[in-house]
Amino acid sequence: MPTLTPGARLRAAMDKSCIAIPGAFNALCARAIAKAGFQACYISGAATSVSAGVPDVGILSLEHFVRTIREAADASGLPVLADADTGFGEAEMVRRTVIEYSRAGAAGLHLEDQKFPKRCGHLDGKELVPTDHMIEKIQWAAKAAREASTPSRGTGVPPVSTPSMSSDFLICARTDARGVDGFEAAVNRAAAYTLAGADMIFPEGLSTEEEFAEFANAMKRISRVGTDKPPYLLANMTEFGKTPMIPLSRFAQMGYTCVIYPVSMLRIAMGAVTRALDQLKREGSVEGLLNQMQTRKELYELIEYTPGTPWEYPA
Protein backbone atom coordinates (compact mmCIF):
# COMPACT_ATOMS: atom_id res chain seq x y z
CA MET A 1 0.00 0.00 0.00
CA PRO A 2 1.24 3.55 -0.69
CA THR A 3 2.89 5.31 2.21
CA LEU A 4 0.87 8.20 3.62
CA THR A 5 2.50 11.60 3.51
CA PRO A 6 2.87 13.56 6.77
CA GLY A 7 0.04 15.85 5.60
CA ALA A 8 -2.26 12.91 4.93
CA ARG A 9 -1.49 11.45 8.36
CA LEU A 10 -2.30 14.73 10.07
CA ARG A 11 -5.52 15.15 8.10
CA ALA A 12 -6.59 11.59 8.96
CA ALA A 13 -6.00 12.20 12.66
CA MET A 14 -7.99 15.45 12.65
CA ASP A 15 -10.81 13.84 10.66
CA LYS A 16 -11.29 11.40 13.56
CA SER A 17 -11.13 13.80 16.51
CA CYS A 18 -9.76 17.05 17.86
CA ILE A 19 -6.08 16.36 18.57
CA ALA A 20 -3.61 18.02 20.92
CA ILE A 21 -0.38 19.11 19.23
CA PRO A 22 2.34 19.98 21.77
CA GLY A 23 5.11 22.33 20.75
CA ALA A 24 8.63 20.90 20.37
CA PHE A 25 11.46 23.37 20.96
CA ASN A 26 14.06 20.85 19.78
CA ALA A 27 14.32 17.34 18.36
CA LEU A 28 14.64 15.64 21.75
CA CYS A 29 11.41 17.27 22.89
CA ALA A 30 9.74 16.11 19.65
CA ARG A 31 10.87 12.56 20.38
CA ALA A 32 9.42 12.79 23.88
CA ILE A 33 6.12 14.02 22.42
CA ALA A 34 6.00 10.95 20.17
CA LYS A 35 6.87 8.60 23.02
CA ALA A 36 4.07 10.13 25.10
CA GLY A 37 1.58 9.02 22.43
CA PHE A 38 0.69 12.29 20.70
CA GLN A 39 -0.20 12.12 17.02
CA ALA A 40 1.65 15.26 15.89
CA CYS A 41 4.01 17.93 17.10
CA TYR A 42 4.24 21.65 16.48
CA ILE A 43 7.21 23.89 15.70
CA SER A 44 6.53 27.34 17.11
CA GLY A 45 8.12 30.49 15.75
CA ALA A 46 8.26 31.86 19.29
CA ALA A 47 9.90 28.77 20.78
CA THR A 48 12.32 28.43 17.87
CA SER A 49 13.29 32.10 18.16
CA VAL A 50 13.82 32.25 21.90
CA SER A 51 15.72 28.95 21.80
CA ALA A 52 18.16 30.79 19.54
CA GLY A 53 18.29 33.66 22.04
CA VAL A 54 16.29 36.16 20.00
CA PRO A 55 12.73 37.55 20.30
CA ASP A 56 9.82 36.36 18.15
CA VAL A 57 9.94 39.21 15.63
CA GLY A 58 10.90 37.40 12.43
CA ILE A 59 14.69 37.55 12.84
CA LEU A 60 15.55 33.91 12.06
CA SER A 61 16.02 32.68 8.52
CA LEU A 62 14.00 30.18 6.52
CA GLU A 63 16.98 27.82 6.66
CA HIS A 64 16.99 27.95 10.48
CA PHE A 65 13.32 26.95 10.62
CA VAL A 66 13.80 24.22 8.01
CA ARG A 67 16.64 22.68 10.00
CA THR A 68 14.52 22.66 13.17
CA ILE A 69 11.60 21.05 11.33
CA ARG A 70 13.80 18.39 9.75
CA GLU A 71 15.38 17.49 13.09
CA ALA A 72 11.98 17.23 14.80
CA ALA A 73 10.47 15.17 11.98
CA ASP A 74 13.45 12.81 11.85
CA ALA A 75 13.62 12.38 15.62
CA SER A 76 9.90 11.89 16.24
CA GLY A 77 8.49 10.31 13.08
CA LEU A 78 5.42 12.47 13.70
CA PRO A 79 3.60 14.81 11.32
CA VAL A 80 5.00 18.25 12.08
CA LEU A 81 2.82 21.36 11.85
CA ALA A 82 5.11 24.37 11.61
CA ASP A 83 4.89 28.11 12.07
CA ALA A 84 6.01 30.04 8.99
CA ASP A 85 5.35 33.52 10.43
CA THR A 86 4.63 35.86 7.48
CA GLY A 87 6.17 33.52 4.90
CA PHE A 88 9.71 34.94 4.98
CA GLY A 89 8.81 37.44 2.27
CA GLU A 90 6.32 37.96 -0.52
CA ALA A 91 4.59 35.44 -2.78
CA GLU A 92 7.74 33.95 -4.30
CA MET A 93 9.23 33.31 -0.86
CA VAL A 94 5.94 31.84 0.37
CA ARG A 95 6.17 29.31 -2.45
CA ARG A 96 9.76 28.48 -1.55
CA THR A 97 8.77 28.13 2.12
CA VAL A 98 6.08 25.56 1.31
CA ILE A 99 8.51 23.56 -0.82
CA GLU A 100 11.33 23.69 1.72
CA TYR A 101 9.06 22.85 4.68
CA SER A 102 7.56 19.95 2.72
CA ARG A 103 11.00 18.60 1.81
CA ALA A 104 12.01 18.84 5.48
CA GLY A 105 9.14 16.53 6.46
CA ALA A 106 6.50 19.01 7.63
CA ALA A 107 2.83 18.08 7.35
CA GLY A 108 1.79 21.69 6.95
CA LEU A 109 2.45 25.28 7.90
CA HIS A 110 0.59 28.39 8.93
CA LEU A 111 0.96 31.89 7.54
CA GLU A 112 -0.20 35.00 9.36
CA ASP A 113 -1.63 38.27 8.09
CA GLN A 114 0.56 40.61 10.12
CA LYS A 115 2.90 43.21 8.70
CA PHE A 116 6.60 42.53 9.07
CA PRO A 117 8.16 42.72 11.62
CA LYS A 118 5.46 40.62 13.21
CA ARG A 119 4.65 40.39 16.91
CA CYS A 120 3.55 37.59 19.18
CA GLY A 121 -0.17 37.08 18.57
CA HIS A 122 -1.04 37.89 22.18
CA LEU A 123 0.70 41.27 22.28
CA ASP A 124 -0.87 44.61 21.47
CA GLY A 125 0.29 46.93 18.68
CA LYS A 126 -0.01 44.47 15.79
CA GLU A 127 -0.64 45.67 12.23
CA LEU A 128 -2.25 43.70 9.42
CA VAL A 129 -1.48 43.44 5.73
CA PRO A 130 -4.41 44.15 3.38
CA THR A 131 -6.73 41.18 2.87
CA ASP A 132 -5.91 40.90 -0.82
CA HIS A 133 -2.20 40.77 0.01
CA MET A 134 -2.76 37.79 2.32
CA ILE A 135 -5.04 36.13 -0.24
CA GLU A 136 -2.23 36.26 -2.80
CA LYS A 137 0.13 34.56 -0.34
CA ILE A 138 -2.40 31.81 0.37
CA GLN A 139 -3.00 31.24 -3.33
CA TRP A 140 0.72 30.86 -3.97
CA ALA A 141 1.07 28.57 -0.94
CA ALA A 142 -1.85 26.39 -2.01
CA LYS A 143 -0.47 26.06 -5.54
CA ALA A 144 2.94 25.05 -4.20
CA ALA A 145 1.33 22.50 -1.87
CA ARG A 146 -0.58 20.92 -4.75
CA GLU A 147 2.66 20.52 -6.67
CA ALA A 148 4.67 19.06 -3.80
CA SER A 149 5.11 15.40 -2.92
CA THR A 150 6.77 14.37 0.30
CA PRO A 151 7.01 10.72 1.36
CA SER A 152 6.71 9.88 5.05
CA ARG A 153 10.12 10.27 6.70
CA GLY A 154 11.84 7.10 7.76
CA THR A 155 10.24 4.94 5.05
CA GLY A 156 13.18 4.79 2.68
CA VAL A 157 10.92 6.00 -0.13
CA PRO A 158 12.79 8.58 -2.26
CA PRO A 159 11.28 12.05 -2.83
CA VAL A 160 9.30 12.51 -6.01
CA SER A 161 8.85 15.82 -7.82
CA THR A 162 5.79 15.24 -9.98
CA PRO A 163 3.52 18.30 -10.32
CA SER A 164 0.42 16.11 -10.76
CA MET A 165 0.89 14.48 -7.35
CA SER A 166 -0.62 16.02 -4.22
CA SER A 167 1.32 15.87 -0.95
CA ASP A 168 -1.74 16.70 1.19
CA PHE A 169 0.45 19.43 2.68
CA LEU A 170 -1.77 21.62 4.85
CA ILE A 171 -1.98 25.36 4.33
CA CYS A 172 -3.26 27.06 7.46
CA ALA A 173 -4.12 30.75 7.44
CA ARG A 174 -3.78 32.60 10.71
CA THR A 175 -5.59 35.87 11.20
CA ASP A 176 -4.68 38.35 13.91
CA ALA A 177 -7.61 40.60 13.03
CA ARG A 178 -9.46 40.04 16.31
CA GLY A 179 -6.97 42.20 18.23
CA VAL A 180 -6.70 44.85 15.51
CA ASP A 181 -10.05 45.33 13.76
CA GLY A 182 -12.40 43.22 15.89
CA PHE A 183 -14.12 39.85 15.85
CA GLU A 184 -16.23 40.37 12.72
CA ALA A 185 -13.15 41.35 10.74
CA ALA A 186 -11.46 38.12 11.86
CA VAL A 187 -14.43 36.07 10.61
CA ASN A 188 -14.51 37.91 7.29
CA ARG A 189 -10.80 37.46 6.72
CA ALA A 190 -10.98 33.78 7.64
CA ALA A 191 -13.77 33.23 5.12
CA ALA A 192 -11.76 35.00 2.40
CA TYR A 193 -8.66 32.96 3.21
CA THR A 194 -10.61 29.70 3.02
CA LEU A 195 -12.02 30.63 -0.38
CA ALA A 196 -8.46 31.48 -1.48
CA GLY A 197 -7.33 27.93 -0.79
CA ALA A 198 -6.51 27.62 2.92
CA ASP A 199 -7.20 24.16 4.36
CA MET A 200 -7.19 25.32 7.96
CA ILE A 201 -7.94 28.53 9.83
CA PHE A 202 -6.14 29.75 12.93
CA PRO A 203 -7.98 32.59 14.72
CA GLU A 204 -5.36 34.19 16.96
CA GLY A 205 -6.01 36.17 20.11
CA LEU A 206 -9.65 35.26 20.80
CA SER A 207 -10.38 36.28 24.36
CA THR A 208 -13.33 34.16 25.51
CA GLU A 209 -14.74 30.67 25.12
CA GLU A 210 -17.83 32.27 23.61
CA GLU A 211 -15.73 33.87 20.86
CA PHE A 212 -14.17 30.51 19.99
CA ALA A 213 -17.63 28.94 19.74
CA GLU A 214 -19.03 31.81 17.66
CA PHE A 215 -16.03 31.71 15.34
CA ALA A 216 -16.38 27.95 14.81
CA ASN A 217 -20.08 28.32 14.03
CA ALA A 218 -19.32 31.01 11.44
CA MET A 219 -16.75 28.76 9.73
CA LYS A 220 -19.30 25.95 9.34
CA ARG A 221 -20.91 28.01 6.56
CA ILE A 222 -17.67 28.12 4.53
CA SER A 223 -16.31 25.21 2.46
CA ARG A 224 -12.72 24.40 1.62
CA VAL A 225 -11.91 24.71 -2.07
CA GLY A 226 -12.85 21.54 -3.94
CA THR A 227 -14.83 20.08 -1.03
CA ASP A 228 -18.14 20.48 0.73
CA LYS A 229 -16.40 20.51 4.12
CA PRO A 230 -15.59 23.50 6.31
CA PRO A 231 -11.94 24.35 6.99
CA TYR A 232 -10.05 22.57 9.73
CA LEU A 233 -9.89 24.82 12.77
CA LEU A 234 -6.83 25.36 14.95
CA ALA A 235 -6.97 26.79 18.46
CA ASN A 236 -3.91 28.21 20.19
CA MET A 237 -3.76 27.26 23.86
CA THR A 238 -0.87 29.42 24.97
CA GLU A 239 -0.30 30.49 28.55
CA PHE A 240 -0.16 34.04 29.95
CA GLY A 241 -1.92 35.52 26.91
CA LYS A 242 -5.35 36.82 25.96
CA THR A 243 -7.00 33.39 25.75
CA PRO A 244 -8.32 31.71 28.92
CA MET A 245 -7.30 28.13 29.68
CA ILE A 246 -9.79 25.91 27.86
CA PRO A 247 -9.55 22.08 27.89
CA LEU A 248 -9.11 20.06 24.72
CA SER A 249 -12.49 18.39 25.21
CA ARG A 250 -14.27 21.75 25.13
CA PHE A 251 -12.50 22.78 21.93
CA ALA A 252 -13.64 19.49 20.41
CA GLN A 253 -17.23 20.23 21.39
CA MET A 254 -16.99 23.64 19.73
CA GLY A 255 -15.80 22.13 16.45
CA TYR A 256 -12.04 22.66 16.51
CA THR A 257 -9.91 19.96 14.93
CA CYS A 258 -6.58 20.61 16.67
CA VAL A 259 -5.19 22.58 19.59
CA ILE A 260 -1.56 23.65 19.67
CA TYR A 261 0.43 24.16 22.88
CA PRO A 262 3.24 26.15 21.28
CA VAL A 263 5.49 27.19 24.16
CA SER A 264 4.21 25.03 27.05
CA MET A 265 7.07 22.50 27.05
CA LEU A 266 9.67 25.24 26.67
CA ARG A 267 8.21 27.21 29.57
CA ILE A 268 8.15 24.12 31.79
CA ALA A 269 11.70 23.19 30.85
CA MET A 270 13.10 26.69 31.31
CA GLY A 271 11.28 27.06 34.63
CA ALA A 272 13.09 23.94 35.83
CA VAL A 273 16.42 25.14 34.38
CA THR A 274 16.11 28.50 36.14
CA ARG A 275 15.34 26.87 39.50
CA ALA A 276 18.25 24.45 39.08
CA LEU A 277 20.66 27.28 38.26
CA ASP A 278 19.48 29.22 41.32
CA GLN A 279 20.18 26.21 43.53
CA LEU A 280 23.58 25.54 41.94
CA LYS A 281 24.58 29.17 42.40
CA ARG A 282 23.33 29.23 46.00
CA GLU A 283 24.50 25.81 47.21
CA GLY A 284 27.26 24.82 44.82
CA SER A 285 25.50 21.53 44.02
CA VAL A 286 22.43 20.17 42.24
CA GLU A 287 22.31 17.03 44.37
CA GLY A 288 18.97 18.08 45.83
CA LEU A 289 17.43 18.05 42.36
CA LEU A 290 18.49 14.54 41.31
CA ASN A 291 14.97 13.16 41.82
CA GLN A 292 13.64 15.76 39.36
CA MET A 293 16.10 14.90 36.59
CA GLN A 294 15.76 12.57 33.65
CA THR A 295 18.21 9.78 34.43
CA ARG A 296 20.89 8.61 32.03
CA LYS A 297 18.92 5.38 31.53
CA GLU A 298 15.73 7.31 30.73
CA LEU A 299 17.56 9.57 28.26
CA TYR A 300 19.08 6.59 26.44
CA GLU A 301 15.70 4.88 26.31
CA LEU A 302 14.15 8.02 24.80
CA ILE A 303 16.68 8.12 21.96
CA GLU A 304 16.72 4.31 21.72
CA TYR A 305 20.45 4.07 22.36
CA THR A 306 22.26 1.12 23.93
CA PRO A 307 25.91 1.88 24.77
CA GLY A 308 28.25 -0.37 22.84
CA THR A 309 25.66 -1.04 20.11
CA PRO A 310 25.74 0.86 16.80
CA TRP A 311 22.91 3.43 16.70
CA GLU A 312 20.90 3.59 13.51
CA TYR A 313 20.07 7.08 12.27
CA PRO A 314 16.46 7.29 10.94
CA ALA A 315 16.37 6.46 7.24
Report the mean per-residue pLDDT as an integer: 90
**CATH topology name:** TIM Barrel
CATH superfamily: Phosphoenolpyruvate-binding domains
Radius of gyration (CA) equals 20 Å
Number of domains: 1
SSE string: HEHEHHEHEHEHEHEHEHH
Low-confidence stretches at least 5 residues in length (pLDDT < 50)? 150-166
Total of DSSP H or I helical runs spanning 4+ residues: 11
Strand order across the biggest sheet? 1-8-7-6-5-4-3-2
Task: Write the CATH architecture name.
Answer: Alpha-Beta Barrel
Termini separation:
19 Å
What percentage of the residues does DSSP assign to strands (E)? 5-15%
Largest sheet: 8 strands, parallel
- Helix percentage: 40-55%
Q: How many strands in all?
A: 8
Which structural category fits the helices and strands? alpha/beta
User: What is the general shape?
Assistant: globular
CATH top level is: Alpha Beta
Describe the structure.
It is a single chain. The chain is of the alpha/beta class and 315 residues long. It has a single domain (6-266), classed as Alpha-Beta Barrel (TIM Barrel). The chain has eleven helices and eight strands. The protein has helices at 6-16, 27-35, 45-51, 62-76, 91-104, 131-147, 183-195, 209-219, 248-254, 264-283, 296-302, and strands spanning 19-22, 41-43, 80-83, 106-112, 170-175, 200-203, 232-236, 258-261. The protein has an eight-stranded parallel beta sheet, sandwiched between helices. Strand 3, helix 5 (91-104) and strand 4 form a beta-alpha-beta unit. Helix 5 runs parallel beside helix 6 (131-147). The longest helix is centred in the last third of the chain and has 20 residues, at 264-283. The chain is globular, with a radius of gyration of 20 Å.
